Amino acid sequence: WLQALESDHLPVPRWLAFGEDGRGRAFLLVEAIPNGVELRQWLEENSDDLPARQRVGENLIEALARLHAIGVRHPDLSAKHVWVSADSLAVSFLDWQRASRRCPMSAHDRGRALALLHASISEVLVPPAQRFRWLRLYCRCAGLDRAYRRRLLAALRPASARLCKDRHYHSQRLPWKTSQPQRLVWLDGEAFCCIPSVAEELSAPEWRQCVLGESIDHDQDFSLLDGRKVRFRHRTYPVWHLGRIWQGLREGNWRAPELRRARLLFHLERHNVPTPRLLAFGQRNPAGGQADAFLLTEVIPNARHLVNYLAEARYLVEHLPHTPRDFREQLDSLHQLGATLALLHEAGCRLGLANQIVPLFWANDRWYVEPMESLRYVRKVPEAIRHRELLRLAHIVALQLGLRNALRVLRGYGLHERSQRRPLAQQLLRKGPSA
Length: 435
Known about the structure:
This protein is an alpha+beta fold. The chain contains 16 helices and 18 strands. The strands form six sheets. It has a six-stranded antiparallel beta sheet, sandwiched between helices. A three-stranded antiparallel beta sheet has the order 3-5-6. The mean pLDDT is 80.
């Protein structure tokens, strides 16, 4: 694909080599884009440079029109797969695994491709007027007549409405947050992913022993050279592990719980949910052998679990002299508790709250979400489950600090109107907290 598209002078990464290694694993080596950044990041960083934004928009639309002119269909061409060279302002398209060629390209396929870009870029980055100019430029570059434009718009509108409701593209329209770049590190032929600030330190012999040493399940806390506390979790999974057997029967790729937890941390960070910082993770899954997985996260100092924090707040109110400032801090923390739960639900995750275990803790004047086993990603949390978890959380607060403070959690969640809070408040009253 890359060789054929490069011969047509289309914006694709330049391929350098491909083949198989000694273990039969396929590989593809492509040249890195010089000073390349993702389109959304470039638009955020150059919001005031109007001539450069206009040039990048023209390069993007002209390249997309040339791609469609030869009948290339790219079903995954969202904004995160468009990269901009900071030097030449040229654009490159990535992720060609599912691309296909179909001549001539229908108005429906063209409309969906444009709708995909529209749904994955926030209106803060590209306002509606600029989008309309891009659409007119596309029609002019593609040489579409008036009748074809009508068919294109008829396909574009419903596809845009459908994709904008998709949770996957909704997350791409969130305000751009530059996350820590990842680096692939090799230790004795094994690869794992980590951030550059700890890559060199993890290559040291003592870390090599932790990551690739004896296959023993353990959780251990360390201190990095810069003084940060980190927690290392290592687990082994035998061949007869039920999850591995099930995925083998389904001919799927098995992921250890540590990898699923790492993906969950990435997801929560993208949605601005406070969580412990992910530093590194990896998995070895040899065919017919024991699998190993590890997870390295930063430890939040002076963290207090929700139940302990509420118990301390109750003791402060009942036994110790307190000031109005103490009350304000307590009220702010209860509002933040509801707001954190709202962020978690908007990110498509639910707490679970199994066996009274609440994965929330207080540190640095904010609530953090701990990625425990009960925390689940479900794409979209139904309203009934939202209210159930909010009511459960408010009931835990009511047991320690009373119903009035529990209602502050409801307000922090976003239920500002009394009519919205009344049904949940009535359920709290019926539960009758003993405190």
